[in-house]
Design goal:
The complex is a heterodimer of chains A (179) and B (103).
Chain A: H1 2-5, H2 8-18, H3 21-44, H4 48-53, H5 60-71, H6 74-87, H7 89-116, H8 121-129, H9 132-164
Helix pairs in contact in A: 6-7, 6-9, 8-9
Chain B: H1 15-49, H2 51-54, E1 57-58, E2 61-62, H3 63-99
Antiparallel strand pairs in B: 1-2
Helix pairs in contact in B: 1-3
Chain lengths: 179, 103
Amino acid sequence: MHLFSAPLAPLLLAFLGGVDPWIFAFSFVTVAVTIGMGFWSAKKSKTASDFFVAGRSVSVGWNASAISGEYLSAASFMGVAGMVMSSGYDALWYPVCYACGYLFLLLFIAGPLRRFGAYTIPDFAEGRYDSPLFRKIAVCFVLFIGFFYTMPQMKGAGTTLAYIFQNITWADGTAGLPY
Amino acid sequence: MPPPTPPEKDQVHSEEFLRTLMRRQLCLSVSCAATFLVVLLGLPLLNYFAPEFMANRVAGFTLTWLILGVLFFPFVWIISWLFIRRSIALEEDEVQSVNQPKR
């Protein structure tokens, strides 16, 4: 709670005093560029095709690196590395098999979806079964999965930031981020 | 300008053509998935029944780590590559078989 009770000036001083300026600069630039790219791409994409597949104008290499970027999440950098560190071979099955999930996505979902002309599973559900209700059910599944995918990512980001800011000393003498 | 009249036997839009098309693509998907599953299930079986063999060191790794940690990814990549090639070839084959009688 002392994060919100502390006045702004000591907070800034604490930032500059306790944190490695390089780490702070890199994290700040990364966050700023990510937010900026979000606004930039939101302005650029006008149609559903722009939004989901970038107007089909992305080459295979760029698309593959975008998908790799999704794969390299907090889970891969921290969770999986830690799991392999603590459990060894048994934990190695986990990242390998979830990478291989992409194979099943390709074999059983991507091809039919593309031939059907749908971009997302809810689109397909509505088009194939001609039922708006089924679309809503599919959306519920997507939100459910998305929520439980995002939650640990946020926790991972929090852990990383807490590590970066662990040297901060606040006005009341406590150190680190409250999390 | 009169609307284009569909030919009497419109093979492309027939239910039968759609079914064979979907069946051929599904056969391809299933056989690719089966190849993958054979390796996925074969590796733990090998670990269990031939532990000495899998403990051999190859390029610094034990064989079982090398297969699961490194060789698995090119293997999956090759399956995907073959799948995409075969899938495109199937589509072209179907287009050709439809166009043939017209010429």
